[in-house]
Design goal:
345 residues, mainly beta, Immunoglobulin-like, 4-stranded antiparallel β-sheet, 2 helices
Length: 345
């Protein structure tokens, strides 16, 4: 939570009730500010009528202001008259923001994936319920902005901040805002990324601009993608060729591997992992791209028929299939020709 300076106040004051003669001695005025719960007394000379800014900010606990008229008598003594007393209490709401996601990453801004949710927790205190109190004492503003970046949210070029939503909060205590997925206006879930920013603000009051109480952000990363190359299309092979697997935007903390099994693709099938065909990312700052080359498939896929290659990834959001590709094998040897029988003749 930020700790802003509590603003000064402006007093309107008048000594019109005093009787001022045209002869000497001349009446003068002073304003004394005494802090109530913390030390500090401040005195300033003021005009007999007008407005005056308090000499010091109003601390938590408030200040007592006393308005005095004084003059010096002919014998040199000082005559003082207490004109008015006013106790001014300060108010400044307090607030904190916290964002949580299924990703336990704690090294920087919380992060999540474009299809996953997150929770914003705001905790507000110091709001007054008295309807006669200024609006700035009764409400705070929760501002929500979006920024779709070109490239990743950390090193990419940020786009313009987009106003998404503003909500007034008028009750003390903690509450949650739950989002099932990002609010970014993305068009490509496999490439777009960005940042969502939440800011808790005290409302402006008089000459005092609104004050930021706290701010929290969440990084939004794209989905990982996979493509296969090297697999012949439209027919069976006798020798299984080398296969390249291109992996893009692997989540910063993820374990990705290739498995195979006999038969067509069937979601949820547990196959055989291929040794050396895996990528493990441990708390990377950003997603990563990798290429896996499979050179031993002909020694693994021994039976004729349809086999499935599948890429699986495990992230903080669970284990998922990134994609699969079929390989059809037919190693039967076909001979074209005729048979001749030998006879004794």
């Amino acid at each position: 939570m930020k700790t802003p300076i509590i603003p000064s106040v402006i007093f309107s004051m008048s000594l019109a009730g005093m009787t001022f003669g045209q002869q000497e001695p001349v009446w003068q005025a002073k304003l004394i500010q005494r802090n109530i719960e913390v030390s500090g007394t401040f005195q300033s000379s003021i005009d007999l009528k007008g407005n005056q800014v308090s000499k010091a900010p109003i601390p938590k606990g408030g200040s007592e202001f006393t308005l005095w008229a004084f003059q010096q008598a002919a014998d040199g003594s000082i005559q003082e008259e207490l004109i008015d007393t006013e106790i001014v209490g300060s108010y400044l709401p307090e607030g904190t923001l916290t964002i949580t996601t299924p990703d336990p990453y704690r090294a920087g801004i919380p992060r999540t994936r474009i299809d996953q949710g997150f929770t914003v927790t705001y905790d507000v205190g110091g709001l007054q319920s008295d309807l006669s109190a200024p609006e700035a004492a009764r409400k705070v503003l929760l501002d929500h902005k979006l920024n779709l970046t070109e490239g990743d949210p950390i090193t990419g070029t940020p786009g313009p901040d987009l106003d998404f939503k503003q909500v007034f909060i008028s009750e003390n205590g903690a509450s949650d805002l739950v989002f099932n997925q990002t609010n970014l206006p993305y068009t490509d879930s496999y490439n777009d990324s960005g940042i969502e920013t939440f800011t808790l603000l005290a409302l402006p009051d008089g000459d005092v601009a609104r004050i930021q109480l706290d701010q929290a952000q969440v990084q939004i990363w794209p989905l990982a993608d996979v493509s296969f190359s090297g697999i012949p299309q439209g027919g069976a092979v006798k020798i299984v060729p080398d296969v390249l697997i291109n992996l893009e935007n692997l989540y910063p903390t993820s374990d990705t591997w290739v498995q195979f099994y006999y038969g067509p693709h069937e979601p949820g099938t547990i196959g055989t992992r291929i040794n050396g065909a895996s990528v493990q990312l441990v708390d990377n700052a950003v997603p990563d791209n990798r290429v896996i080359k499979l050179t031993t498939l002909d020694n693994l896929l021994l039976q004729d028929g349809v086999w499935t290659l599948e890429v699986l990834t495990q992230t903080p959001f669970g284990t998922e299939s990134l994609g699969s590709a079929p390989i059809s094998i037919d190693r039967n040897l076909v001979l074209n020709g005729s048979l001749r029988y030998l006879s004794d003749n």
